[in-house]
Amino acid sequence: MADFQRWVRDNRNVNTTTYQQLWTWSITDPDAFWMSIWQYFDVVHSTEPESALADSRMPGSVWFPGARLNWAENLLRHASIAPDETAITAVSESGEPARTTWAELEQQSANLAARLREMGIGTGDRVAAVLPNIAEAVVALLATATVGAIWSCCSPDFGVKGLVDRFAQIEPTVFIGVDGYVWNGKPVDRRDTMAEVRNSLPTVKHVVTVRHLDTKAPVGDGELDFADLVRGTATPHYEQVPFEHPLWILYSSGTTGLPKGIVHSHGGIVLEALKANALAYDLGPTDRALIAASTAWVVWNMLVDTMFTGCSIVTYDGNPAAKGPDTVLKLCSDFGVTRFGTGAAYLTLCEKAGAEPAKNYDLSSLRSIMTTGSPLPDSTWRWVYDQVSSDVLLGSDSGGTDVATAFVGANPLEPVRTGELMGACLGCKVEAWSEDGTPVVGDVGEMVITAPMPSMPVKFWNDIDGQRYHDSYFDTFPGVWRHGDWITISENGACQIHGRSDSTINRGGVRMGSADIYDAVEALPEVATSLVIGAELPGGEYHMPLFVVTNPGVELDETLIDKIKKVIRTEVSPRHVPDVILTAPAVPMTRTGKRLEVPIKKLIQGIDESVAINRGTVADTDVLQWYVDYANTFRASAN
């Protein structure tokens, strides 16, 4: 970052000596800032851009018109710089690490890209994958981007319905599935799930299988073996696409229906990856990054993006606590990791388990830790410095799937303070607003972004007129991005995130919409309706109750509770099994028939009833009172 400041001084005549000065310039002159990122990092391109920011409207901003480039080509440029250095170290619960050099990564990606082209796959086609955090997933993503096709990936622990709900929308031509994975030392065979998913996707013409669980087993009839497709000596050929060309489709949590397909661009992710990883995270070719994440979480994409700096990565396929709560921290020691990323809940788990990683492992290589997904408790901040490393840069970042990066987070120039995020990221004009749209400082407000960023979605998939995109972010404050988090911004720019201001279920950083859970639970013949709440609580705690209204003559006994847990675990996600399942007299609704998720969440969080809800909007106030009583009882017991 200091080198970039010197470059800006020499080439832009902009002199900055502090982070806040650099950030202020980045948001007051975004055209110059983002063009500086392009030039400073010498982005590989075939056609020059006419400008950086041609139109700053939100939504509808126009970035780098005229430019043509390829995301994969920019990442794999390091194959010609350090071909024999390790690019990926793949680690699982059950096997020895497997290393892939930069040259091997480039070659495998080129071979797979050539095979995709032979299949007729090209610009705009979709490749859907169900893969764990393994090297093959990185290769498949790179190959897809190489040919200009669009990547979309989910984790293999998703249920069939959750996968089909996402992939059916995008009509993929290629489906890449995994035979299974190992979790807690036990093999989990997913071949039947993969078959059911691909049979539910009528547009799929080519099926590829990654033999991860059993590398010696034959692939099924009509399937292609991934290992065969990456062999060969193809010459890399990167399709040159416009800056805004779709790179991948990620998914919203699906709170109000089917998960929305969030589309990011080649150019936007290239610039954001370079800015975040080289400047904010200070990564380079001597670094090695490990982020404990499934492919369903956007931080997996961010792990791959660290490679833009020449940083190598460690992929880990398994339970982060497989061999004890600090399993992943031991991996940091074993492989000389310099940057570790994880959900806040994992570090708190280690703290509460009494883990002492600094005492048991050599973590001297570790320079920085990124925690995200939820606020980090103050005690866990202190635990990191007491039990992990006394001089590591611990940064709490807050961003999202929506932009595949952070809005606020760490930087290498400012001090670490317990419970605080250092401030807004470069190029991110973040403010806290009151309900009437007035900026507030020192008080809790809605987190808004008042100027565009290049990694904001170019669109939602199948959102022809852009209405869903508009309604998701710009409906509350026209022309201003409302993210759905409560934030406090102090006078010095430091921030605190207080959790979601909407009803998304955010378990350890993995977001899931309540609709996914309702679809699974209410398909059971015993269940009439239900209400699920995910409430962030003080001290980093999280409470996720599921209220169930059974059909007449049905009792919510242990057998039914187990059945409900099983259907959520198998059809939705094992991470989103509720903490408690309770019988309720009814589900509270508005007069227009909407479930009162956010008001009940606020009640559980301790917000006064008069603030949390307007009783005049409630269809049945007697039902509401039952939930008010529950919230009061819960808070009393929690205290």
Describe the structure.
It is a single chain. By secondary structure, this protein is α/β, with parallel strands linked by helices. 32% of the residues lie in helices and 24% in strands. It has 21 helices and 36 strands. The strands form eleven sheets. A seven-stranded mixed beta sheet has the order 6-5-18-17-19-20-21, with helices on both faces. The chain has a five-stranded parallel beta sheet with strand order 8-7-9-12-13, with helices on both faces. It has a four-stranded antiparallel beta sheet with strand order 25-26-28-29, with no helix packed on it. The radius of gyration is 24 Å and the shape is globular. The protein starts with a helix and ends with a helix.
Major sheet: arrangement of strands:
6-5-18-17-19-20-21
Number of helices: 21
Q: Which class best fits the helix and strand makeup?
A: alpha/beta
Rounded to an integer in angstroms, the radius of gyration calculated over CA atoms is 24 Å
Estimate the global geometry from the Cα principal axes: globular
Number of strands: 36
Biggest sheet descriptor: 7 strands, mixed
DSSP helix fraction = 25-40%
Q: Averaged pLDDT, please?
A: 93
Gap from first CA to last CA: 45 Å
Task: Give the strand content.
Answer: 15-25%
Runs in which pLDDT lies below 50 for 5 or more consecutive residues are none
